[in-house]
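Justification of resources, computational component.

The compute hours requested in this renewal are based largely on the per-chain cost of generating structure records like the one below. Each record pairs the submitted sequence with a full structure-token output. That output is archived, and it is also reused by downstream analysis tasks.
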Amino acid sequence: MSDGRRVVVIGGGLAGIAAALDCAAAGARVTLVEVRRRLGGAAYSFERDGMQLDNGQHVFLRCCESYRALLARIGSARHVAVQERLEIPVMSPGEPTVTLRRGTLPPPLHLAGALARYPHLKVTQRWSAALAARALSAVDPADPELDRRTLGDWLSDLGQSERSLAALWDLIALPTLNVRAADASAALGAFVFQTGLLASADAGDIGFHVGTLAQTIGEPAQRALADAGVELRLGWRAQALRRADGGFEVQGGVEDGLSAEAVVVALPHARAARLIEPLLAPTAAALDQIGSSPIVNLHVVFDRVVCEEPFAAGVGTPVQYLFDRSAAAGAPPGCQYLAVSLSGAEREMELSIDRLREHYVPALEALLPAARGARVEGFFATREHAATFRASPGVGALRPPARTEVPGLALAGTWTATGWPATLEGAVISGHAAARVALDAIELAPPSGRSAASMPSPGSASSPAPADGAAAANAGAA
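The structure output for this chain reads:
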């Protein structure tokens, strides 16, 4: 293997993992560096009170082919499962659980029955929502004008009330965009709706991680990268990036550096901006304008089973989504561990653990009658201050493509111009696109097979092209 085919991938999340595997498969000599001592980025697990817990409840959809292909590639497909048919149990205080279930008719009729029977909207609101959905299916998500508007304002123009936004549209917006419909980019909202719900009748069937995130992503990815010949440097912080001898020098310490002919920067957008600023000042300035949205996950252990559903959405309650993760975590016998996922959680980020408990334990008791006589054995929170880029109006114009103006320097991450919101699927697609840029620079062909087929055009520095595909849920309902 020649010395002129060296690639350094900076960042060990899904984007970096996908990029490193593609580059290695094409014959490059690859080094992946990651500041943490594990892989997986924002999708990771940790131990608490004898249980193995995930930081967040990431889910995906049946149509997320790139993410599912990556899991198969690293040998962890057995750790996930996809619903036979889209079913979302919806809970509301004092009301029976209602299940939104798709039919077998072609889109959009496969959702008509679920909407027609949805009790959290009046009959007139259901009809109005159906008309709004039809209009949303016809817009162009790549339209810059659509990106300048909020999804809430766009829907309001079509007669959607605040009640409709909260009881229906936020069920889609919060888990996929990590903001409420009232604050989300209408373009990203249209993308999610069209590709996640209308691409095919089964596109939106939900996939779950049966194992922990460490079992599903971090640990198998480390083995797969090693098997592919990728040099892993965990606990290694990339402090500076500069041009050197026709290639690049990645500085990690006073006397610790790596040279390469191509570099993939697969970091969160704020960190990426600092690293690339000396080489790409305008791009770094644009990244500085992209905001972040937080996610808070509550971990609640009851002394008995209080919820019969594997997961559920909440309406008319602060509980957005809850998941029964008892089996995956290894909860104590007889106990039930519920994870409550809160997207767009600016308010919850500021609350102490005591305040969160005071607020959310009664909220869970209002939803789950069996919880009212149960004892809470454990309650704590995980907080991701910058869990995703903020999917607000105008963000589309700020997201850079994988290909930069500096030959051989590629960008990867959910924040790049894939056309997707911040999702598992978007992360993997961005990694494939960045790998193609790096391989072009060192004159290697992309790997053959499904992974290559799923690699979108990396775009150009001036005209990024949205990727085709369907949306996955992020770390919110996720």
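Residues 111 and 346 are 32 Å apart (CA to CA). DSSP finds 16 helices and 20 strands in the chain.
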